[in-house]
Amino acid sequence: MTIAALSVASEAYPLVKTGGLADVVGALPAALAPHDVAVTTLLPGYPAVLRSLDKPRAIHRWPSLMGTPARLLAGTLDGTHPLLVLEAPALFARDGGLYTDALGRDWDDNWRRFAALSRAAADLASGVVRGRRFDILHAHDWQAALAAAYLRYAPGPGTPARTVVTVHNIAFQGRYDAAVFPDLDLPAEAFAIDGVEYYGGVGLLKGGLESADAITTVSPTYAREILDPAFGMGLEGLVAAHAARVTGIVNGIDPAVWNPATDTALAARYTDRTLSRRPANKRAVEAQFALDAGDGPLFTVISRLTWQKGMDVLAECVDALVAAGGRLALLGSGDAALEHAFRLAADRHPGRIGVRIGYDEPLSHLLQGGADAILIPSRFEPCGLTQLYGLAYGCVPVVARTGGLADTVIDANEAALDAGVATGVQFNHVSRDALDTAIARTIALHATPDRWAMIQRRGMRSDFSWAKSGLRYAQLYRGLCTE
């Protein structure tokens, strides 16, 4: 039996992307197709998404969806997979980012924008839209989680789909004042401790988690970590209460997009058997970042520059990194103070540290293909994708032992090196001393070419495609459909 699944999210690669969520949502249809799961993706009608639609056709209209007219348009994602787009110009046709205005401030009505997306998803998943039937509604993060609450409290005329809510990062919860509740089109009983009420306000993610038939996180370790107040961000009690329906499934990466043998963003393509071609990419990175040419260790960072990502600690370590013989090419943006700190570091160490503030997708590929190691000192990391890209490209991950980083990188301790299974460097406790030590270990490993190449090849031969993860999602869906 083919399972019809509706995947609902606020972004999806290659149409719109601010982070790893988009990569996951974009990859799911192809990952699930071999397991007899047909995925349709529902996205907001941002201008960039609407421009991508080729001859869209309207299949449903709402005279008033959260107070504004809206249409549902049908198209394809990446030219292949079914795509539905919620066209509501009052909510999504704006300059600025997906979630923020041109000055980086959250849109005041984000609650309304994503409640509309969730309501539309619930209508699709409960028979409101003629000719559309779904067995599973899969909602991603707080922007779509309320769909599960709508199906629970206010479904349409058909049989409601079973619901899965995936937590990509529990730190982002969609919390709003109780004053928004009357405009959510939910019955009064939904404003309750086992509904959408959260510390006297409204919690969009919280309401979705309370209502979902299954909850997933993006790694097994993160599924355990969010039971701890240090990681659960206030929702650890809810997660613990529903632990029997919580599953951790590691994200995959798309080898059609992230493959050093075919990647057109690289100066030279290569495989684990042709690593001798890789230095051409290192030369290209050096040129892009105005770094001194050399064979010594070149580290990279491709990240949001935030406290969560441990970038404040890295800023304290860069002088020692240079003193030890390393260089750094950083691509990212985030906290203004951290951006300033890394610019100052580049000024202190011309030719040794290069900084590019912003994001550039092709450049991120070149950095993975040219740098020797990628630094990921996150304080918490639900899954992480940059370390998976690093593994695939022979860019050795240096990671904090948390979440998906712990699940996907094998530390290069002596036992792992002797067994030939090491793929990176792990460290505990995100602190200056711990990161300094991890960087020193990495530099020492880089100085032993045979061991370094072994670590690179072992990482490149690891399977972090969607094959295993796609199967696990399919099994979860089938289990829900047969309950």
TrEMBL record:
A molecular-function term among this protein's GO annotations: alpha-1,4-glucan glucosyltransferase (ADP-glucose donor) activity
Catalytic activity: [(1->4)-alpha-D-glucosyl](n) + ADP-alpha-D-glucose = [(1->4)-alpha-D-glucosyl](n+1) + ADP + H(+)
Residue sites binding ADP-alpha-D-glucose per the record: 17
Gene Ontology cellular component list: cytosol
InterPro entries linked to this entry: Glyco_trans_1 (IPR001296), GS/SS (IPR011835), Starch_synth_cat_dom (IPR013534)
Pathway: Glycan biosynthesis; glycogen biosynthesis
EC annotation from Swiss-Prot or TrEMBL: 2.4.1.21
Positions in coiled-coil regions: none
Superkingdom of the source species: Bacteria
Starch synthase catalytic domain mapped to chain residues: 6-239
Keyword Glycosyltransferase: yes
Family label: Belongs to the glycosyltransferase 1 family. Bacterial/plant glycogen synthase subfamily.
Function of the protein: Synthesizes alpha-1,4-glucan chains using ADP-glucose.
NCBIfam families: glgA, PRK00654.1-2
Protein name: Glycogen synthase
Species: Sphingomonas adhaesiva
